[in-house]
Amino acid sequence: MDVITSHLNADFDTIGSMLAACKLYPDAVCVLPGSQEETVKGFLVQSAFYNLPMRKPSEIDLDKVTRLILVDIRSRARIGIFGELIGRTGVPVHVYDHHPDEAADVKGDVEVIRRVGSTTTILVQILKERGIPITPDEATVMMLGIYEDTGSLGFPSTTTDDYFAAAHLLSCGAKLTQVSDILARELTSGQISLLYDLIQGARSYTIRGVEVVIAVARREEYVGDLALLVHKLRDMEAVSILFVICQMGDRVVLVGRSRKPEVDVAAVMREFGGGGHAYAASASVKNATTFQVREKILRVLEEKAIPRRTAADVMASPARTVDAGETIFEVHQTLTRSNINTVPVMRDGTVAGVLTRQVVEKAIYHGLGEERAGEYMNTDYECAAPETAIERIEEIIIGRNQRLVPVVRGRELLGVITRTGLLRFLYDMRDVEHPDAAEDVDAEGAMAPRKNVGNLMRDRLPAQVLSLLRAAGECAERLGMKAFVVGGFVRDLVMRMENLDVDIVVEGDGIRFAETFAEEQGARVRPHHKFGTAVMVFPDGFKVDVATARVEYYLKPAALPTVEYSSLKQDMYRRDFVINTLAVRLAPEGFGEVIDFFGAQRDIKEKIIRVLHSLSFVEDPTRILRAMRFERRFGFTVGRNTLNLIRNAVRLDLLAKIPKPRLYGELELILKEKDPVWIVRRLSEHGLGTSIHPALVLDKPHLELLGEAQEVLAWFSLLFLEEKVEQWAVSFLALLDPLPADDAKKLAKDFGVRSRVREWVRICKDEGESVILRLVSTQSVSRKMIHDVLTPLPTEVILYLMARAKHHDIKRYISLYFTQLKNVRLQLKGQDLLDLGYRPGPRFKEIFDLLLERKLAGELRNKKEEIAFLLSNFPPTAEQGRS
Fold this sequence. Notes:
single chain; alpha/beta
């Protein structure tokens, strides 16, 4: 006998899962091991579902069970009498569940475990894959399961799979009005009374800086649907973390809800024999008072559930330092280059004091720039150990007004905690909600500090890449380093966009890490010692860029950067835009943790592009072009202040100072975007064309030509020809169109473009006009002429000429060439003529020209017809004879 069962206190996901499982195991019987929620109980009594093969636990002879199917549960302790069957020889166990893994989970012979919003979703997917039909009534019951467990597809746990499953059920005839009516539960008088008592019995506790509310009530009788009351209480009181303790008869019922990623309520409930999700869980306890339960909850939160924050969690490492023997002028340079305001002063390898920008600038004002840092540093400071509690750090920085706290172990400086760093940490520790499935930031626009995208990485990245990132984190840890994946890869991961350009930043020696990791993985390494970077090339051609965490400073505007080693935070500060400052931890402990120093996720949510500081475009003017590119690619808007900084950089004509190859690199990326014309139009609005070349004013006719080039490329792609074309190059040729021939060729050379592209520019300027004139000036243009004129030209040049052509006939000729003429080839070769007895000579060209003309006209379809035409029109002469 096959038995399908689930957990005690069954809900609609239980019922929907069991119904779906019955369709996979048609000979099985369904058994609810214990009680049901009140709404579920009423539904079972009144609905046709009750007519399914439903048995009571007392009716089941465990010795006759040959297979056990568990749905929506993996805990042996919560399946009643069926727990005795776990591990019994001859009784295989099949498991279908969506709950997080736990150490005590039942290990099934068949397991289907997926991170979705409801177990019903998993089983509906299987039914759909196997083509098993679902009746409208069955679809309605299954929809109840999905809607209840996902909050009508609105809970944070909801996934796209839940939506697809619901869509399938809707196509099977599920009745949403019935689902809505059943789930729209009105409170009974008993529930209203209990809710009032819970409100009165709610108390707030602060545990390690996190606010927790615990509400306590007592009832002699059982009151159903306590979870519904908990949701209402949470919403009414705007509580982020809520535990409800309700004495009902001889047992205490617990329900926990959390909107904070740091607090896993399921971990708390496991201490009471319960379980659930990190954000929603429950348990039931006997032989305990509400006071005992509350005290245990507080103790568990203190010891296990809420992590203790220490100096190690907030410190920046490695720290930028100066030596006590350096001059005040030298310290000022360090502060400016590193964009910091306070720095530890070292003497004999240990911290001797701290020095602030304010003191340094006043010393310079008073003519003391050549004095030593050790003479003016503040020696009345307090250090912290890595394990120092964050509350003590607050006392030092806020209470004692100490701007920087060195974190030391013995005499060794491990890192520093700045006032800004502490404020950011405390700001991030505020109450935040679990992000929805479609969001990665909370309602206020700032990211949860400990957000983890490990599951998102698993869902979106190829298994090989994910495995590689995990291995990188493990390798770095073995070397005593820290590795992070950073930049556009993380940005696009958070935005659910495809991007496998992996950039790893290492706090430590990046080249040493790359060489060690490459040796372990069988990859090749190309190191760049000047910048502390390396490229790893794997056997399958996949590439990973590795960089040592570094800070860059510019000796003059638009110059190449000078590089010094630094911390992850300072490495992120050198990035172009805030949205590109995200990092993800790769260490085994904390793998997938998002690190956001500058509010990148807020900018992603608000769809805004901002620079990190006001000199960003002065240091690297090519960022202007990048801003316009990102603006179009992501549908973002350049921030107001950033836009003002762009205007100022244009006024100073900083782009003109950029080496032409760097400028070309950004232009090529723009032309490779899906809508380059929009981006170029934005460049035109800011007057940036003349910064590239004085003749590139990017006026309306020029923009129209670029638009026409895009239309030509779209037309060409619809021909579905096998020929590969560098589409961006067609736009590049159109971009250089207004320039005189010599200027265009010189600019292409100065840009450092590939020789092939430079040749295309030369052809366009030197031969393009004559090609057009030849076709236009001829009264009767034959197919052979079109073929002969266009065949020597590269496809990219022909497409540019098509876009540029004003004459409709030119476009028609080029269209005819690509669609009918370009790939026409004679099957008859010179050797065939020799075999037929013809002697080589000038006549061969005459023969082949006429053959090709007839072939292009469609008169000759195969080699046999070519030979017949040849013998008919060019019979061998008597002198030649036939062999």
